[in-house]
Amino acid sequence: MSKSRVTIRHKADECVGCNYCAEVLPQYFELDGDGMAVLLNAEKRGVFYHAEALRVELPEIKDVVDGCSTSIIFVDEN
């Protein structure tokens, strides 16, 4: 992975649809027809969906990680 990117991990199966991630990071999250968050352009690996994100957006990504009401969003900075 490039040093200019980070990886967002989302455990979508445990989403409760609070919409916080989609409000703060609409370029990475949207709500599906059932009102649950979907990580855009993601690949499913195990229980998590993974998507690359721009490192420059790390403050907003960390805000979503901290603000997720079910703590199912993570960011890998390596």
Question: What can you see in these coordinates?
Answer:
The protein is globular and about 35 Å long. A hairpin with a 5-residue loop joins strand 2 and strand 3 (37-39). The chain is an alpha+beta fold. Helices cover 19% and strands 33% of the residues. The longest helix has 10 residues, at 58-67. The chain contains 2 helices and 6 strands, in the order βαββββαβ.
Instruction: Please trace the helix and strand order, writing H or E for each element.
Output: EHEEEEHE
Sheet with most strands: 4 strands, antiparallel
Shape: globular
Strand content: 25-35%
What's the N-to-C terminus distance?
Answer: 8 Å
Number of helices: 2
Average pLDDT: 96
Across the major sheet, the strand order is 4-5-1-6
Which residues form runs of ≥5 with pLDDT under 50? none
| Overall radius of gyration | 11 Å
Question: Which percent range fits the helix content?
Answer: 10-25%
Please report the total strand number as a whole number. 6
Output the structural class. Answer: alpha+beta
Note the topology.
Blueprint: E1 5-10, H1 20-24, E2 29-31, E3 37-39, E4 43-45, E5 48-54, H2 58-67, E6 73-76
Antiparallel strand pairs: 1-5, 1-6, 2-3, 4-5
